[in-house]
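yo

u said u wanted the structure for the complex thing, so here. seqs first:
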Amino acid sequence: MTIKKFKIFLASNIEKEEKWLTEMSNKGLHLTKYRLMTYYFEEDPNNSYVYQTDFRPEADEDYFQLYRDAGWEYVDDAVNLFHYFRKDNREQGVKKIYSDKESVKESYSRMMRFYITLFLLVLLTQVGLFATWRGLWVQYLSLGIVLPVVILYVFLLFSLRRRVKFYNKKG
Amino acid sequence: MKRAEEFLPLSQATYYILLSLREVRHGYGIIKDVEEISHGEVSMGPGTLYGALGKLEKQSIITKSKEIKGDRRKFYELTFLGKEVLLLEFKRLNSLVDNAKEYIEQLEGENNDNKEV
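structre next:
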């Protein structure tokens, strides 16, 4: 039986997402598909997996091969940026795809660079709106749409920076 | 290009990756070798390794080796710079241990004396 769950995780919260997916799997609900904030779970009380999420926009064939070799089953991806992997809980060996603090930190740094670029592009597309600002109601409407997006990005970037700093201190 | 000294000190993971590339290996081959030469002390995750390989290749410390027939995996080897970096790091670590040896033995001796009292 497939169970759908709607849930939003920010990129800075992938560790929370991993934890949630692993807990769901402990209860017998295993992620098999992800589409636009919707998680699809298959029910099977006899299994339990550890889930890991990896940010890798430039993933190539060799990347997937390496994870397969290391015993990680590929589940799905979120818009080709985040990749979901799982490993049987009963298996021996490491249950983390990042085995030291340094590489966890680097993964957050990569995320941050990516979202900064995206954020600048978003701002760039809105230059026209501010250059031609005449206080028209349509312009207020556009601003009302753009502003929450900008605020979300700023929030995300600050959260990512916090994660990087956290691992800096620990590492 | 950066000089070999500028890459030191290496992280534990990088040190072991370079050491395992004394022979041509693919990604998973590195993970297995590192586990062996560290006597099970270092179990590297694929995310850590994949990130490190990309970085080391960019720094010209390692390079993709010739493909091996019948295997689609990418194989890696040390460059001349890579070998230099590994040797320098080994010497650095060795001198750290060497310099401390005498004093650490004294400290251990004192500790043992204290225990006996």
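The CA atoms of residues 43 and 92 of chain B lie 24 Å apart. Residues 80-116 of chain B form the longest helix (37 residues).
cya
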